[in-house]
Amino acid sequence: MGQIFRANLDNLNKIEFLTGYSDEKIEGLFFMENTQGESLRDGAFEMRKNKNIIEITFEPIEKSRDQLFYVYLQPTSDALGTIGLLESGESTEGNLRINHNDADGDLAIRLGYQVDVTPAKFISTIGQRMSQYKPAWMKTPYLYIIWGLFFVSVIKLMVMMIEEFFNDQPRR
Amino acid sequence: MLSKCDRWIWVIVLITLIKGLVWASVFPLFQAPDEEAHFAYVQYWVENKEMPWLLPRDRENGLSKQFNKTLNYLEFNEVKFNPLYQQDFKSDSIMGTNEKEIIQNQLDPKSNRGYQGYSYPPLPHLLNMPAYLLFRGDVLAQAMAMRLTSVFLSIITMLLIYSGLRRLFDDQKMAVGTTVLIMFQPMFSYLSSMINNDGLMNLAYAGFFMSAIKIIKKKTALTWREGVELFLWVVLGIASKTQGYALLALLGIFILMKIGTTRKNKNKKYFSIILGGILITLMGGKFLIGENQGQFDLYKSYFESHSLWNMGKNIGFYYQTIFESFWGNFGWLDTLLPDSALKVIALIIVVSMGGLVYYFWENKNKSDKAMIFLAFSGLLVGSLYLFYFLNEVVSTDVLINGRATQGRYYFIIIFPLFALWIKGLEVFFKAKKKHWLMFALCVLMVWLHWIALFEVIIPRYYV
Prior knowledge:
The complex is a heterodimer. By secondary structure, chain A is α+β, with helices and mostly antiparallel strands. Chain A has helices at residues 119-131, 142-165, and strands spanning 2-6, 12-18, 26-34, 39-47, 53-61, 68-75, 96-98, 101-103, 108-113. In chain A, the strands form three sheets. Chain A has a four-stranded antiparallel β-sheet with strand order 1-6-3-4, with no helix packed on it. Chain A is extended, with a radius of gyration of 22 Å. Chain B has helices at residues 4-26, 35-48, 65-73, 76-81, 99-104, 123-127, 129-134, 139-168, 172-183, 186-191, 198-218, 224-240, 246-257, 266-292, 296-305, 308-327, 339-362, 369-395, 414-428, 434-462. In chain B, helix 14 (266-292) packs parallel to helix 18 (369-395). Chain B contains 20 helices and no strands. Chains A and B meet through strand 9, helix 1 and helix 2 of A and helix 1, helix 4, helix 8, helix 9 and helix 20 of B.
């Protein structure tokens, strides 16, 4: 079961495949090639029973931005029929979406990249995304205030519990 | 200066509120079980000035055009059914790609093509009306405000739980610790911050258990006032969600357990026996007979090709699914906790069960009625689902059971479950270092909470 896709960024290092639920453990091999058929990465994968996502990780492919790749899975266990199904109420045969663009293929996949970001940049990006599709009073900076208060309150709770639980002296 | 007791009440209120805001903010709107159905119910009721009462032909025909369009803009189906799919985020703005269109979408919310009503009791939706009306014209704000209504209900629930645990445990620290455990249970935190009718139902059950423990501990005969108090919780539960009916059976058990204190008052004693018996028979009959009515032939044909062992295996798997969904599985595709965490939790519970069995055996002559009542409550709710599962096994023989994936339905007994587990662990570890144990468990639960937020939910929706 193979899939052609285009990577959006450099340092592609992970692909997740969405399958139907399997009531058996699925094991197999994966192979990744460029459009010239040259092998880039390969390895083994497994998906435990009653799960539905196969994740493969590999050494980052440095210059992957806007490149086309071909990846395919070769199950080695008996449960061959379950890979390639999309758990969805909508028909997706021959119509896969990756990052909101139509692409050919049978497999639903999501790509991961090794991206070096500072913690501040990471938090800023998550905060920005979390703010979207929310009312004004749930966007940044209110989000930062809520989450900040959450961190502080949990730490305070732990401190209070330590004082309370391990101090047998009566409080004045 | 606040007393020790008051101090923890404020801590519970504050942390439940802030935690609720965090969970309400982290999940994309309408991505919780049936959130869109509950929102549509409130919208229909307010805009059409009548309660929805017919099932729609399909989901799209049951929603207003405004709401249907909003869900399309939010990529509702794509995100819900595909765990690899994320909303279309803008990289340079805090407004989403289609957010302006959602806000400007002022299609008449009365324009339903059908009705939206899933036989929900109306009370939880009545409570959500203020949120809907306050932010009329902004559907995103309306939905988020309804989530906050659930958060406020969860604050009351936690206070009722804490109050009940204070009465149950002589040691205040054990009550505080058990409350913290429940407060940070990931699935409970999640469901307490979403638009649903579970919040009010869980509140009713928490109140019932709090009152029941208070009355049991008094060791006197049940007064009429106390009977009314319990009955009001039952009414609230039934008015919240259909699972509220199990409170009738719990009330029946409670009444029968209190018979010993009414020995001298023969009228009260006989009334208690009759009423308790009726309530338990009614609910037991409803589930056992109601679910399996006319199904005898199915059982017959099932056992022609399957053994009792096959049936037991399937049912065991359903209960395993309930366990997973109680702790970390939110329904259709995803999970809040990794398998390794579930295994650790399962091990702790098994150890706790061992301690609990030992406790009841050692105390069989002393009769800790409060714990016995909680144990009966847990067994009752657990066995009610057995009747559903039996029917499912013989009629479909499939492994994935829709009801079993709704572990949230077990939150009605979150109070007895955690109280029993903690008691079992206390007994198992001989209670000498129970405060250490309690603190360690709280640290573990807070850590699981962290995992759910930072290793599962945020990567799932935003990374």
